[in-house]
Design brief:
The protein has 194 residues and is mainly alpha-helical. The protein folds into two domains: 132 residues, no CATH class; 47 residues, no CATH class. Helices cover 67% and strands 0% of the residues. Helix 10 packs across helix 11. The longest helix is centred in the middle third of the chain and has 19 residues.
Length: 194
């Protein structure tokens, strides 16, 4: 299909991208017991480009959820295999879990295919497998503060309250979600005094 330009005619979004990754993905599906996923297979043969995914979803009349999934996958930055679980948790909190799962599955499939001839790719595959398992069981934590907590401390509703709350949430994320409600309230009081 690619050599006869049929693929480009049917799926112009794949132009100058190729379908080589699909073979590694179908092998991974078989070897790892993954249920074949048509959208993941599509992601394997098109570039992660938001504009192309929007055009593709409209042209093929995808459902809203399918279009959102393609868009989120395209927006999700690749993950390195040496990424720690703590760092991935921060990225998952700020991003789209399914986008990361799709990225990790495609990366794992690619690394497995290269691992036949490349020991470094074998290590990458191990890293991607570890991160994929973590992402699969990760649950998004709830930020322990609300705007009402800051108004109780004397903050007035408005942009400053929102900015303070956002800064506290960023501190909480960067702490690896370790700051508890008490520590966050103390920081909030300090921020509101300044």
């Amino acid at each position: 299909m690619r050599q006869a330009s049929v693929l480009t005619s049917v799926l112009p979004e794949s132009e100058k991208w190729g379908i080589d990754a699909i073979h590694a993905l179908t092998r991974a599906e078989k070897d790892l017991g993954w249920t074949p996923d048509p959208l993941l297979r599509l992601e394997a043969i098109v570039p992660p480009d938001v504009a192309r995914m929007k055009t593709l979803a409209e042209r093929l009349r995808f459902s809203v959820s399918e279009a959102v999934r393609l868009r989120q996958w395209a927006l999700t930055a690749p993950v390195e295999p040496k990424t720690t679980e703590t760092e991935l948790a921060k990225r998952l909190y700020r991003g789209d879990r399914q986008g990361f799962v799709d990225r990790l599955r495609l990366s794992l499939a690619s690394a497995r295919a290269r691992a036949v001839e490349d020991n470094d790719a074998l290590l990458e595959a191990g890293g991607f497998s570890r991160l994929l398992a973590f992402a699969g069981k990760w649950k998004k934590p709830d930020f322990p503060l609300k705007g009402a907590d800051l108004t109780t401390l004397g903050a007035s509703p408005g942009p400053k309250l929102g900015a303070t709350l956002k800064n506290l949430e960023n501190e909480w994320i960067e702490s690896g979600f370790a700051l508890d409600r008490g520590a966050l309230l103390k920081r909030a009081a300090e921020a509101l005094e300044s």
